[in-house]
């Protein structure tokens, strides 16, 4: 038995070995350094006016990330019928975000999240149902917000990061956004069908997930897990409208807080401020950015995220050099902390549960 535990521990450690953490940092840093070396000059620094007012807005940006995590923790407590404490929910969310940060955006940390929940005392089948419910709620947020913002805003401004550049950029951005949206919409339809109409189809998906190397050890027990999923799906279908409303509001709270981080960061350095319409446009472009990040093959979208930030949000900044600098600050606030928190938490979590 101890040998099995040791083998499981080694498998999980291999999945999150240090080079998985180093790669996204190196990729993102390389892209930012290249952009800064190309765009930053003496005039760029003259545009920066850092004061205590700036520090306050940066602090608010960090607090918004905390609000975002609190929303995820609240959602997890709702979906587990408050079986998880706040401290346990914090631990799971941080590990989940860490896994997402070291895997390509299209993959995320969903498969390993099932293992995290299971080791914290939730049956495998119910863990799968909870993870699928979180995916359902996340995708529902994007599916509802994207067309709403497109209807409210000028589509030329929304999909064009520089009105003076060739229209080919706008066309490419539009194609990326529509492609990503269709992927998310298809996934949401399949997930909804599996959770609420055909749980046996979801069982098949679980069997496919457990073919991954890190989870292959448990693939022989996937049949029983599939039965648990069917039972859990029955439970989810029986949940009240208020239950789903609370879970969705926690999701809405989380994603909205995350998108407002960039709006607040911009206020930290440009005191003339932005109009309400500009703030909504900045918010909307971030949502489009996250949809486009689905195509990024790099861990956590490293490199691609920084590049898209400078091109897509640079219009709201005085210079391209400042856009590159802000891209770095944005990732320092919204991405890198999860890497370091995960490095600290994961070995202790493995030691406790294996």
UniProtKB/TrEMBL annotation:
Pfam families: LPG_synthase_TM (PF03706). Keywords: Cell membrane, Membrane, Transmembrane, Transmembrane helix. PANTHER family: INTEGRAL MEMBRANE PROTEIN, PHOSPHATIDYLGLYCEROL LYSYLTRANSFERASE. GO terms for cellular component: plasma membrane. It is found in: Cell membrane. Its main location: membrane. It is a multi-pass membrane protein. This is UPF0104 family protein. InterPro entries: L-PG_synthase/AglD (IPR022791). The chain crosses the membrane at residues 21-38, 50-71, 92-117, 129-153, 173-196, 241-270, 282-300, 320-346.
């Amino acid at each position: 038995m101890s040998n099995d535990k040791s083998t499981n521990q080694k498998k999980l450690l291999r999945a999150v070995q240090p080079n998985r953490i180093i790669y996204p940092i190196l990729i993102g840093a390389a892209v930012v350094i290249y952009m800064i070396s190309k765009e930053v000059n003496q005039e760029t620094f003259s545009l920066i006016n850092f004061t205590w007012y700036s520090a306050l807005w940066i602090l608010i940006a960090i607090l918004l990330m905390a609000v975002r995590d609190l929303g995820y923790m609240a959602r997890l407590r709702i979906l587990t019928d408050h079986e998880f404490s706040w401290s346990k929910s914090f631990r799971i969310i941080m590990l989940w975000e860490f896994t997402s940060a070291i895997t390509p955006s299209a993959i995320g940390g969903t498969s390993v999240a099932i293992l995290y929940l299971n080791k914290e005392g939730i049956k495998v089948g119910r863990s799968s149902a909870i993870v699928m419910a979180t995916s359902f709620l996340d995708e529902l947020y994007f599916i509802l917000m994207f067309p709403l913002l497109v209807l409210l805003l000028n589509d030329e401004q929304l999909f064009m990061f520089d009105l003076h550049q060739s229209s080919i950029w706008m066309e490419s951005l539009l194609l990326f956004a529509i492609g990503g949206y269709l992927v998310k919409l298809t996934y949401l339809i399949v997930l909804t069908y599996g959770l609420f109409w055909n749980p046996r189809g979801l069982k098949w998906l679980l069997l496919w997930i457990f073919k991954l190397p890190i989870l292959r050890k448990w693939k022989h027990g996937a049949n029983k897990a599939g039965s648990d999923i069917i039972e859990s799906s029955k439970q989810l279908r029986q949940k009240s409208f208020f239950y789903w409303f609370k879970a969705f509001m926690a999701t809405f709270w989380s994603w909205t807080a995350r998108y407002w981080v960039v709006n607040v960061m911009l206020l930290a350095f440009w005191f003339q401020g932005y109009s309400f319409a500009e703030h909504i446009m900045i918010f909307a472009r971030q949502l489009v950015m996250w949809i486009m990040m689905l195509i990024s093959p790099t861990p956590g979208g490293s490199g691609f995220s920084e590049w898209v930030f400078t091109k897509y949000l640079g219009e709201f900044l005085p210079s391209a050099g400042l856009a590159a600098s802000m891209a770095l600050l944005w990732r320092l606030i919204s991405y890198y902390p999860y890497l370091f928190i995960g490095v600290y938490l994961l070995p202790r979590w493995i030691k406790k549960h294996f």
